[in-house]
Amino acid sequence: MQIVLISGLSGSGKSVALKVLEDAGYYAVDNLPASLLAKLAAELRRLGYERVAVAVDVRSGVNIEALPQKVEHLRKTVGDLRVIFLEARDDTLIARFSETRRRHPLASDEVSLEEAIQKERDALESIAALGHRIDTSDLQANTLRAWIKDFMQIEATAGLTLMFQSFGFKYGIPLDADLVFDVRCLPNPHYDPLLRPFTGKDQPVIDFLENLPEVDQMYEDIRRFIATWLPSYARDNRSYLTVAIGCTGGQHRSVYLAEKLGQHFAASVRVLVRHRSAARRQVDHGARPADQ
């Protein structure tokens, strides 16, 4: 079992770090009292969770003083325990609280923001030495996300879902498409009366298209482009990347390529495959939907 403990100063980016891990598949818990850390670990282990991310900070109140002891105990019982401590300069924290108009958890009518920040530093001093410290003073949120991923060795595409969507240009380009590939230049099975009733998911059409060198070349070009640029899209912290592949009617060529590309990338990233126009055409003609 792996537990990642996130702590640090309010306004330093803890919620950003926790979200990165949650998107990567970690069971995420925010604002957990330090006294419950061992119980949480035991319960989640019993339930079969392998990766857990927990944010513990000054919001725990007096419980935070017990965190170093709890961490040392967990290190003996958990296979992999990592601590990330986020901090920032006072001027940066003051600016962030001013921009968001959020209230510091230790601030009050009697305690100014500057005093609250110093009080929090003092309370968390022993925790800062427990693990990896990151100064987020000059970091944008995207940069912090990338640093967390690097530290945890999270694959760049771990939090991204790649959707391949076939469509017919005669019905219009999908509004949700991020990338659009036009495959109308490939030979069209529609002109073969025996193939016309089928879709790119049916074996007769698959056999026809697989025997055409230009279809394989188109597949390789699209596959190579996506493989090259997918990590860059993932670093932009996208949740989805929709790749639309269009032919004239959206029934044969685009469906075949969307299916084949989906099968290839499913080995390395979460993949969805959808067929817009093929389903529409089959329903319009009273036949079975192509996407079932």
TrEMBL record:
SUPFAM superfamilies the UniProt entry points to: P-loop containing nucleoside triphosphate hydrolases
Residue ranges annotated for the RapZ-like N-terminal domain, each copy included: 1-153
Binding site for ATP: 8-15
Signal peptide positions (record): none
Pfam families referenced in this protein's UniProt entry, alphabetically: PapZ_C (PF22740), RapZ-like_N (PF03668)
Keywords: ATP-binding, GTP-binding, Nucleotide-binding
Presence of the UniProt keyword Protein biosynthesis in the record: no
Membrane is among the record's keywords: no
Gene3D superfamilies: P-loop containing nucleotide triphosphate hydrolases
Domain of life: Bacteria
UniProt-annotated binding residues for GTP: 57-60
RapZ C-terminal domain residues: 161-277
Matches recorded under PANTHER family: RNASE ADAPTER PROTEIN RAPZ
Listed name of the protein: RNase adapter RapZ
Organism per entry: Aromatoleum toluolicum
